[in-house]
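Figure 3 (text version): structure tokens given as input.
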């Protein structure tokens, strides 16, 4: 039996109110890393704690990464507007 692996694109709000966008195949583990592990992203490591504000599931890593790149290209104002209507 084949196991389906889903990938997630997510938006975090850092303690300093900045936003971080990423993707992963294990959101719970990645959130733990962002909030406590030495292996978390440097950006979030110095801005803890972080709060998950939004996530979207995709069937493939390529689609999740494409969505991550799309969201990262948005202005902060557009990201905040999106979060207001999709959180």
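Below: residues designed for each position.
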């Amino acid at each position: 039996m084949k196991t389906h692996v889903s990938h997630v694109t997510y938006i975090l709000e850092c303690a300093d109110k900045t936003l971080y966008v990423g993707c992963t195949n294990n959101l719970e583990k990645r959130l733990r890393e962002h909030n406590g592990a030495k292996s978390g992203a440097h950006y979030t490591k110095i801005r803890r704690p972080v709060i998950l504000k939004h996530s979207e599931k995709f069937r493939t890593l390529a689609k999740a990464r494409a969505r991550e790149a799309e969201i990262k290209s948005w202005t902060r104002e557009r990201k905040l507007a999106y979060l207001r209507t999709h959180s």
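The beta strands are 7-13, 19-24, 51-58.
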